[in-house]
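User: Batch of two.

Assistant: Item 1 of 2:
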Amino acid sequence: MPAPSRRLNPSNLAGLFLVLACHAAGLYGLWSLRLIPAPDEAVTLFVNFISPPAPEKAKEPKRPPAKPHPIEKPQPRQLVAQTPVVAATDRVAPPPPPSPPAAIEAPAMPLPAGPVALSSELSVACPERAAPAYPIQSRRLGETGLVVLRVELSETGHVAQARVHSSSGYARLDEVALATVRTWRCTPTTRNGQPVRAVALQPFNFTLQGN
């Protein structure tokens, strides 16, 4: 047999609606009295854990400040010069004579850093000089020319260095001029009364007679 269908009675429906209406009225009343907060008014609460305070250290008893020791003031002493007793037979030596003032030495004149350049030819300051001999080979070949030497004299008047300043164009003529000038003896050059090194130019002109 088929199961009988359940149908709600009108009286049951009326009772259900009445219960729902009562619940709705109760909720409205609570909301109107603000007992239930609205969703927008809900506030999030944060809880912070507070650590317990650290235990206080035991206070040390205060010591009374030490009293400063009284400073004894030194008593002033009187210095009395004692005069030595001199007998009649004692001899008192006279004070030593003052030492003479030290002689002030005159500052030495500084010497020039380099050799002094002579304004004239070297032959003017050289009383002992000889003329160069003309090389025989240069005569046969007809070699002529002017050679100028740069000569440096020492403090004693001797030739310290000699080199070719401008060549004659022939090595034989240049070598003869260098060998000749090294035999010269010159008067030492002085400055402020002291002998110094000097430098000068010396020309030698090689020419053939009859040309």
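Item 2 of 2:
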Amino acid sequence: MERFRVQIVDDYEPWRRFIRSAFRKRTELEIVGESSDGLQAIQQAQELRPDLILLDLGLPTIDGIETARRLRKLLPQCKILFLSQESSPEIVQEALSTGARGYVVKQSLNELMKAVTAALAA
């Protein structure tokens, strides 16, 4: 079975813990790193080379959209999936314009898992 390396980028530690817990049930997903701000996420991603980055919008130092733009230039093969509480169509569109594979509002674990599967299959 193919394994996918995942990096979680979110400044809210309880949310990162929730994702870690949920991903334990998915043996094909290996969490290789966690970051709490945009700059740290970029540095860590260059080191770890994850297959998928779960990226929050509201981050310290560099927001999620700018972080995604920089990551796309540095690691074009890496897939990005935004996770946010923000559901404004304008924000969603701007986030997706970075080349991200998807955007999930932080509400449903089921939707998150569907989006992760779709992002990795693309």
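The beta strands are 4-9, 29-35, 52-56, 79-84, 102-105.
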